[in-house]
Amino acid sequence: MALSISAAVLLCIIVVVLVKGGYVRIGSALVCTLFGFTLAATGLAPTINSALASLAGLVASF
After folding, report:
1. Distance, CA of 49 to CA of 55 (rounded, Å)
2. Rounded to whole angstroms, how far apart are CA atoms 32 and 45?
3. What is the 3-state secondary structure (H, E, C) of the chain?
4. What is the mean pLDDT of the chain?
5. Using one digit for the tens of pLDDT, what is the confidence trace for 17-46?
6. 57 CA to centre of own chain
7. Using CB atoms within 10 A as the burial measure, which of 7, 9, 13, 16 is most buried?
8. pLDDT in the model for residue 2
9. CA 40 to CA 48: how far, in whole Å?
10. 8-state DSSP, 23
């Protein structure tokens, strides 16, 4: 649970920086956010969560 909250906060910070820097427009950021919520409701969600957990474990091992 703590890992997913940390990942969400990190991704939020990245999106805010990209929008503020002008690299991503607000409309594109909203579309990506909606896509993320839609993707979370599909059958791919457990696979994505598993991949993120594996990646976090790999990073933590360094």
Report:
1. 10
2. 16
3. CHHHHHHHHHHHHHHHHHHHHCCCCHHHHHHHHHHHHHHHCCCCHHHHHHHHHHHHHHHHHC
4. 84
5. 998 999 989 999 888 888 888 888 888 888
6. 16
7. 7
8. 58
9. 9
10. S
